[in-house]
What we know:
This protein is an alpha/beta fold. It has 3 domains: 7-93, MurE/MurF, N-terminal domain (Udp-n-acetylmuramoylalanyl-d-glutamate--2,6- Diaminopimelate Ligase, Chain: A, domain 1), CATH 3.40.1390.10; 102-304, 3 Solenoid (UDP N-Acetylglucosamine Acyltransferase, domain 1); 313-346. It contains 3 helices and 39 strands. An 11-stranded parallel β-sheet has the order 8-11-14-17-20-25-28-31-34-37-39, with no helix packed on it. A 10-stranded parallel β-sheet has the order 9-12-15-18-21-26-29-32-35-38, with no helix packed on it. Strand 22 (188-191) and strand 23 (194-197) form a beta hairpin. The chain is flat, with a radius of gyration of 27 Å. The chain starts with 6 loop residues before the first strand and ends with a helix.
Amino acid sequence: xxxxxxxxxxxxxxxxxxxxxxxxxxxxxxxxxxxxxxxxxxxxxxxxxxxxxxxxxxxxxxxxxxxxxxxxxxxxxxxxxxxxxxxxxxxxxxxxxxxxxxxxxxxxxxxxxxxxxxxxxxxxxxxxxxxxxxxxxxxxxxxxxxxxxxxxxxxxxxxxxxxxxxxxxxxxxxxxxxxxxxxxxxxxxxxxxxxxxxxxxxxxxxxxxxxxxxxxxxxxxxxxxxxxxxxxxxxxxxxxxxxxxxxxxxxxxxxxxxxxxxxxxxxxxxxxxxxxxxxxxxxxxxxxxxxxxxxxxxxxxxxxxxxxxxxxxxxxxxxxxxxxxxxxxxxxxxxxxxxxxxxxxx
Length: 346
C-alpha cells in the first residue's frame, strides 16, 4: 500500500457525488477489501456475492448502493455505481513517489530538446534531438526518448520505457515499464536469399488519456502512422503491429495481438489473448471473449467468441476425434440424403 494522506468523508462524498450517512469528519487514509478493512480505511461493495461480508466489516466507510446501506452499521457513502465511485476515490490515495521536477544530473538531454519547466526527467534518461516534453510530465529512470518525439502534458512514463523517433503522445498518457513504442513493423519481402527488410517510415500517434501497460510493443507504421485513439486502455504484454488504428475508449486485456493494418472501432473490448487478423475492420462496440481468434471483420456491433469451452481432457480428446471425422460424416449424410430423394421418386 502506498503511503497516503487522511481524507475526511465529507471531501470524499463531494468528489464522488455520494450521499453520506454517518460522520462527515471521520477520516480514512487508504482502501482495503471488505474482509480486512480497518476503521481508518475505505472499502466498497459492488457485487452481491460480497454482501455477507458487510456484517463483520470494520471499515471506516463503505461505498455501496441505497439497497445495501441498511446492511452496514458504520459510515456509508451511497451511490448508484459503487465501483465507478471507488475508482474515483483511489485517485485521492495515490501516494506514488513522484520524480523530482527538473532534469537529473545523470540524464542526457539534447540541446534542441524542449522540456517544460514543471516536467521531471529521472536518472539516466536519454532525451534526443527535437523532443518536446509538456508541463507536469514525469519520466522515471532509464527512459529513452529518440529524436522528434512529442510527449504532452501530465504524462507518466515509467522506468526503462523506450520511445523511438517520430512518436506523438497526447496529454495524460501513462506508459508502464519496459514498453516499446515505435519499433519497426514486421515488414519483409521474400527474396531468393531469404527476406529483404521493408523500411518503416511511419510513426505512432497516441491520443489523450491513454493507459499503456508493461512490456507492450506498439510498432511504427510502414508509410502511415499507427494510431491509438483517445481514452484507449491497453494491458500488459500486448502487441500492436504497424498501421493499426484503434478507436477511442477501446480496452484490450493482456496478451492480445493485433496484426498489421487492422482497424478497430471505438468502445470495443478485447478479453485476454484475443488475436486479430491483419487488414480487417472491426465495428464500434464490438466485444470479444478471451482467446478469440478474429479472422474476419464485422460491420455490426456484438459479442463474439471462437475459443473452445473448458472441458475434461477425456471429453476434449473425444471431441477432437469427432471434429476430424466431420468431413466424412458430412459426405455420408449427403449420400444418404441423395439416396432418400431417389427412393422417394421411385
